[in-house]
Each structure stands twice: as structure tokens, then as C-alpha cells.
Design brief:
This protein is an alpha+beta fold and 311 residues long. It contains 5 helices and 8 strands. It has a domain of 149 residues: Sortase (Sortase, Chain: A, Beta Barrel), CATH 2.40.260.10.
Length: 311
């Protein structure tokens, strides 16, 4: 049985009409193609923005932060007399990749950089790196230090401007060693003469060519002019450091973090498109853009380790 509501009393004002816009917004129709395209565009934009930021502003800021931290740690070790003089730390453990081993200064370029142990792409993001199968600066033999040409602070960008006779100083746990530039060489140039017993040489290596598209390597050879320091035993068999630590080497171990960060980026892009349907455009972008940008930088930072280490 249907119950009828009583009529409104006589003289009662009519019921107010619904205000404009108060009706519920119709639900957006399902469009799988739009969701897929939007997700793909979010991922692509985050990656492009991440790479651009990581190889320029963000990378330079990361380099400056890492250098400040390494400089403070190296000064502490020098003050305590525990700075490394070989492959091992003062407590007998093998040096970790990136551990500070020297302070490099080239007054002609205004360059002052802490040198870390190792020359993988990840280590060179923080500054120049010492190749582990060569002696430390100041010791007999050829000490090799690599650095980036353009990315992450571009510490070795000005090496091509060094004329013969330029002074290079390197401070280690054994004191300050001085070198004098003897020659610059590229691929195909004659090799320097072999060292005699008790002599020392420094070779600085970076990329050569246009920005971020190296066509080869540039090497700066410098002769040790200060006293030779004693060198603790270290393995120097050719090739034991692996391809990732050679000039223009890539770090294959970075594939795992690239995969994991990519999954996080894809998940965030899918959530962004879902939120767009529920919240609306502006609310979604206010929340989604910072998250997508941060994940894009994280993915590009991991992927940069797959690129040549001297970029």
C-alpha cells in the first residue's frame, strides 16, 4: 500500500529549487585508453625531468654535499693519523668504495676535490676516484685518478687547459706530494716513457668530446717532483678491478636499483591516474607532481650508473 505524503499547508512557501551546481557530478566514463596513455605520459615526463635534473642541478648539489662530507671525514682522519696509505684502513679492513684517500688541488684551475677509493660510476658521482690497482699519490709507480667531465660537479672539465709545467698537489696520509704536468694525450698519442725504479707519475683521466657524448678519453700525465713515499704491498695484477672501474666503464650492478625504482615510478603513475578520476585535476597534480618528480630523479640517478663513468 502506498502512503501519500500530506499536501503542504495553505500559504506555505514553495520548496526552494536546488542551487546551481549542487547536483552530484556525473562519474567520468571508464576510458582504459586514456588511463594507459596518461600513465605512460606521467612515466615519460618523470624520467625526462629526472635525467635533466640529475645530470645538471641535482647532480651538482649531490656532488657538493658528498664532497663536504668527505672533506670533513678526511680532515678528521688526517688529524688522528689514521688516513689510509694503501688498500687497507688503519684497522686492517679493506677500504670501502668511495672512502676518502687523498685531497687533490690544482691551483691553476681553482680545483680542490676529495678523491675517493674506486672508479666505478657510482663512486665518481661524489668526486674523482683513485683506481684501486695503482699506488696512492706520492708513492712509486703510476697513480691513476679519474673524474667526470660534465656531470656531478664536472670536476675534470678543465683538464684540457693544463699546460706543461702546471703544478698538481695531492695530500694523503703520508703528507703532500707535488707533481708537474708533462703532457696531455688522447687516443693514438705516444705513451709516456717507462718509469725507472723509485720514480712516480700521476695520470688524470676524464672524457673527451662534446658534453655527455664522449668520443674518447683525455689523459694528463704529471711527474712526481717531491720525495717518493713508501708503498705498502698491494695486488697490481692487470684486470682484477673489473670493467666497471676502467675508463668509460659502466656499472652493471645498477640494474637492480633501476628495476626497483622503475616499479615504484610505475605504481605512482597508476595511482596518479586513479586519483585524477576521484579528486580532479588540480588536487591530483598538487600531490602527484612532487612524488613523480622525486621517483623520476631516483630512477635516473640509478640509471646514470649504467652510463660511462667519465661523463
Amino acid at each position: 500500500m502506498t502512503v501519500l505524503s500530506p499536501p503542504p499547508p495553505a500559504g506555505a512557501p514553495p520548496a526552494p529549487a536546488p542551487a546551481p551546481g549542487s547536483a552530484p557530478e556525473p562519474r567520468r566514463p571508464e576510458r582504459p585508453g586514456f588511463t594507459f596513455a596518461g600513465t605512460a605520459l606521467c612515466v615519460l615526463a618523470a624520467l625526462l625531468l629526472g635525467f635533466a635534473a640529475d645530470l645538471t642541478l641535482v647532480g651538482h648539489l649531490q656532488h657538493a654535499r658528498d664532497q663536504q662530507t668527505a672533506y670533513g671525514e678526511f680532515r678528521r682522519q688526517l688529524a688522528l693519523g689514521i688516513a689510509p696509505v694503501g688498500r687497507q684502513a688503519y684497522d686492517g679492513t679493506t677500504l670501502e668504495p668511495g672512502a676518502p684517500v687523498a685531497l687533490l688541488r690544482i691551483p691553476a684551475l681553482g680545483l680542490k676535490e676529495v678523491v675517493g677509493e674506486g672508479t666505478t660510476s657510482g663512486v665518481l658521482m661524489s668526486g674523482p676516484g683513485h683506481r684501486r690497482d695503482t699506488p696512492l699519490p706520492g708513492q712509486a709507480g703510476t697513480s691513476v685518478i679519474m673524474g667526470r667531465q660534465w656531470g656531478y660537479g664536472s670536476p675534470f672539465n678543465g683538464l684540457h687547459r693544463l699546460p706543461p709545467g702546471t703544478e698538481i698537489r695531492l695530500t694523503t696520509g703520508q703528507g703532500t706530494a707535488t707533481y708537474e704536468v708533462s703532457a696531455l694525450r688522447r687516443g693514438g698519442d705516444p705513451l709516456p716513457p717507462p718509469l725507472k725504479a723509485g720514480e712516480g707519475r700521476l695520470t688524470l683521466i676524464t672524457a673527451d668530446g662534446a658534453p655527455y657524448t664522449p668520443s674518447g678519453t683525455l689523459r694528463v700525465d704529471a711527474t712526481l717532483t717531491s720525495d717518493v713515499r713508501p708503498s705498502p704491498p698491494r695486488p697490481r695484477a692487470a684486470g682484477w678491478t673489473g670493467g666497471s672501474e676502467q675508463a668509460l666503464g659502466t656499472e652493471n650492478a645498477a640494474w637492480l636499483p633501476v628495476f626497483l625504482w622503475s616499479q615504484a615510478l610505475l605504481g605512482a603513475a597508476l595511482l596518479t591516474m586513479a586519483a585524477y578520476r576521484v579528486w580532479g585535476r588540480w588536487q591530483t597534480w598538487v600531490v602527484g607532481v612532487p612524488v613523480l618528480t622525486a621517483l623520476g630523479i631516483a630512477v635516473s640517478g640509478a640509471a646514470t650508473r649504467l652510463l660511462p663513468n667519465l661523463l
